[in-house]
Amino acid sequence: MSGQSQAQSSGVDWRREAVQGNYAERPPSDPGGPIRIWLYSDRISYGPGDPIRISVNTNAQRYSLEIYRDGAHRQLVFRRDGIPGTWSATDVNCSELGCDWPVSAIVSDTESWRSGGFVIKAFATSGSDGVVAESEHVVIIGPDRQTRTTGINDRLLLIAATATWTAYNDWGGSNHYQGLSGPKGNDFSPRLSIRRPYARGFVSIPDEAPRAVLLDQPGILEEPEYPHMEWAYRNGYSKKYVSAGWASFERRFVIWAEKEGYQVDVISQTDLHNDPTILFGYRCVATIGHDEYWSWEMRDAIDAYVEGGGCIARFAGNFMWQIRLEDGGSTQVCYKYTARDRDPLMTTGPRHLVTESWEAGEIGRPGASTFGLNATQGMYASWSGCSPRGAKGFPLYRPDHWAFAQTGLYYGDIIGGQSGVFGYEVDGLGYEIRGGLPFVAPGMVAPAGMEILALGLSSTMEEGDSIKTGQTFLGREDAEYVAMVLTGSADEASIEKTKRGCGAIVHFERGKGQVFHAGSSDWIMGLVRDDQIVAQITKNVLDRFLAL
Ligand SMILES: [Fe+2]
């Protein structure tokens, strides 16, 4: 019996379990029971021509594999049927160690595949009762060498937020949020393997799956509700499907962009980490969605690209944590809130690579110096107990900026309020209002000449008459951590100083390049929900950057 049905049949408060519980998918220890199938690949991303090694675990006698390029037009590139199924026992700690299943299929004929996201589907049919089992994985195919060597081109390069995918992927029981570690077996894992399946909802989701940002206004004294986690729990999806993955963000952006006529290449953050020259030749590089985890090397690549004349269009939020990639890139490390106590580099050094917030003194590289904004000056908005009746969009202060051409927007308008683009995590900065306009507050780290175009309110914690301790999703952990990082103390007075943040849209020039940053995780929903103003702003930015 699944965790869900146990809770429902035993009368346990399933709504509470949906929000507080860890119901991540874990493989059974033996091959009995209903037909099952899972798969993963040996890497997150590949170049055209690279072989893809696929590991499949199934109790079916035979199964099929299908691979298609996922975009505005779905293109089948591979199919193989009748592959003999094999079952391997899986370590209980597979989220950290990897699944270590044998390679089941090697797909070598990838030379002609056009850069993008490729979904690998494994499916099987039970001979006895005809029940079908299926599972999906996704890999990124980067641009071919010819595209990369033709010099400045008009193709858009999307960097998929794959480090955030890994961080939130709870397949096997652990991610960077919850898990099976520690003395009570319920701590998050600071080390995660990429060699495991993606949780259900990371590769595809139904269009009707709720988002975290609430479009409906809660009624008077209504307690926070979490429709997306309840939906995930009731339908057997990952609790984190709204937070990360191809399905929610990059897939939707590629589909929108290709329908609008853009030529889109896609790389992973691991590609960026390994080879900063992969950006060369592109006028415009974009990120979308929830883009929370970056390595030192990835930031180096972005900074050098912009200095040299590249343009970044970041329609994403929650720039928060430094990661390290270890074991040849197959393990992602992030100790987060516990880094000062547990990250071995605190003792051995180099300390600037300790895996905590970019604003931490050990690191000495504030996030705002790359993207203009950061998570510690922002955080949560438009859901839970964090402004659930808020504007849901960005209040506009500087409508004369070129990004708002052909929109008809006015001072004080809300960008994307009806489509819910503001939240659930936003990036902000310290600011002050003068003459009805926001400016970078004195003493704050920010790129020279940066303009704050739009700005709304956010917070690091839930507070209010309807908030009951222990009943809501967010605790005090974020508020205490941010206070500690920004002030050196997590006491009440420090939290009081740091708990109120903002989410902003900013633009600045740096070296020969430029950065436009709409600092919110759900900007994509403006494009998905056909919000014409959000789409026009997105096109204004991409078109201008691609033409420079
Ligand atoms: Fe996040």
Q: For the terminal residues, how far apart are their CA atoms?
A: 58 Å
Strand order of the largest sheet: 11-9-12-14-25-24-23
Determine the fraction of residues in helical runs and give it as a percent range.
10-25%
Mean pLDDT: 94
Radius of gyration: 23 Å
**Form type:** globular
Tell me the structural class: alpha/beta
What binds here, in terms of ligands, is: fe (ii) ion
Residues in β-strands, percent: 25-35%
Poorly predicted regions are none
DSSP strand count: 25
The major sheet is characterized as: 7 strands, mixed
Number of alpha- plus pi-helical segments: 16
- Oligomer state equals single chain
What does this entry look like structurally?
The structure is a single chain. By secondary structure, the chain is an alpha/beta fold. It is built from 16 helices and 25 strands. Helix 2 (14-20) packs across helix 6 and helix 13 packs across helix 14. The chain is globular and about 75 Å long. 51% of the residues are buried. The mean pLDDT is 94.
